[in-house]
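Q: Can I see a sequence and its folded structure?
A: Here is a first one.
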Amino acid sequence: MSEHSEKPCIICVAITGSVPRKEDNPAVPVTVAEQIESTHAAFEAGAAIAHCHVRDDDQTPTSDPARFAALKEGLEKHCPGMIVQLSTGGRSGAGQERGGMLPLSPDMASLSVGSNNFPTRVYENPPDLVDWLASEMRTYNVKPEIEAFDLSHIHQAAAMNADGRIPGNLYVQFVMGVKNAMPVDRDVFDYYIKTVQRLLPNAEWCAAGIGRGQLIVNEWSIAAGGHTRTGLEDNVRWDQDTLAPSNAALVQRAVELCAKYERPVASVHQAREILGLRRAA
């Protein structure tokens, strides 16, 4: 029996991102209807959190609150109790428009507290915007998921927690494998865990790997007692040569890793309790 056996593992599915749907990755859901259908299958497979972006009619990522509202409504209807986490990421807009959906009061929203390099640009998260997004999340009772692309982001989240800008017990996600940012590195991963445990002893943590790093980071996080994220936003390939067939298939792969390390998969009710979220309607 492993050290972390019997601790429920929360599986987050990132259903779609900014990757355009082309002929070589038709499984990526784009329209709101496709996203609802894909998320429902992932929910049935064991995902407790849906990390959501939306697209416009040209498949371009957008922060349109109306599209987020339609997606949120559909997920709440077809995936009862599932935690809806909306993205405030910079791929879908600029400045405060990135938080235009927060008045919808989703269960959670992503929050990056610092800037870093992306493959072809800088992912800008200036302090005034971070403070504004955190304030809106407090106003609308939205729990942030801290997306840590760098060690400094964990330190900044701890500082914002200490001064009340991000209250309560935090949920910190390590994002590894973005080109030009933090690579998939086991020593760094282990130090991230130690840093969270030292600075934020009451926090829960999760990890996501990008591209071919997805399965590696899934296994590291499950084995180490954390939670994990999978899905077609992060990786459209099952391996180097084969396309992932669906979000549900990627979730099932994480479920199998939970079984390997004797970790029960958290139900939506357990996930809400672990994260201190309100009970589902």
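Q: Show me another, different protein.
A: A second, unrelated one:
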Amino acid sequence: MQALIQKLARDRNLDNDELLYLLENIGRPEHESDRNTLFFAARACSQQTFGNRIYIRGLIEFTNYCKNNCYYCGIRAGNPAASRYRLTCEDILASCREGYRLGLHTFVLQGGEDPGRSHQEIRDIVSAIRQEFPDCAITLSIGEHSFEAYKMWFDAGADRFLLRHETADNTHYRQLHPQPLSLDHRKECLWNLKRIGYQTGTGFMVGSPGQTAGHILKDLRFIKELSPQMIGIGPFIPHKDTPLAYAPAGTLEQTLILIAILRLMHPAALIPATTALGTIAPDGREQGILCGANVVMPNLSPANVRKKYMLYDNKLSDGAEAAENLAALERRFAAIDYKIDFGRGDHPGFKK
């Protein structure tokens, strides 16, 4: 096991048999020292590129309407218990102003695939943010759309796009998503985003129902092929009003292992310590950073809607998860010898 970890740290890759062996065995109780070696190597890899800096993003969850019915998601169209909202352009700009006052230089607009908001409206929102905040990065995370829509938003000033593929196995994808959603179309969207010139992010849920080590191997291979600038993974957490309400959640340990593996495979990637990590463990975010993550996204949405964007049960949106509590976040990072970087935090090798 130690030899495999050393090879991964040196070569940034393993062959399929080696990687599958690592995935199937590194989590066993007898491999605790090997896990520590993996985590140490990933942390050293991250620090070699980024030092002890953690990039900060202001997350604005601007709509919880969605036309899709993904089996795991709390804002799925078929959930009548969801309390729907849609922020106006002025609401979004007000959130950006507050974030800028706090020192943030990246805004992440996240939402469902809202059928009530046109591509032109999103273009106008992006254009308004770009005009008022020319020195800031704009990230979109709003699902699957046409090449033409992605290009329109890019031309309006969007810099980055997050679109997790969730699983790279077709059969497993169908366990998580109904028709007409398809893995092929999701991948096509990701390749389109890269072709257009976005800093592109993908990722997957850890411990989702039906997931095997073989599925994760396919995820890692697809990510290696795509070579995204951002990689977002987090534990599956069930939502009480979905078809997968009673499925067991993914674990902190498996998520940390995969963050570390992804860091070693992609030394310059922007890898967040997600809200889901902080939801399943009080120090989950810090543990993610110590395993190679280098981004956090505190919530910048208006306070009155934060509890409505409930993708999974008990999702954090206050405390150190709230953008207005950056001082608390800074203290928590200082305790593990890290500090917030308030810059745009672009991928170090990316040129628009």
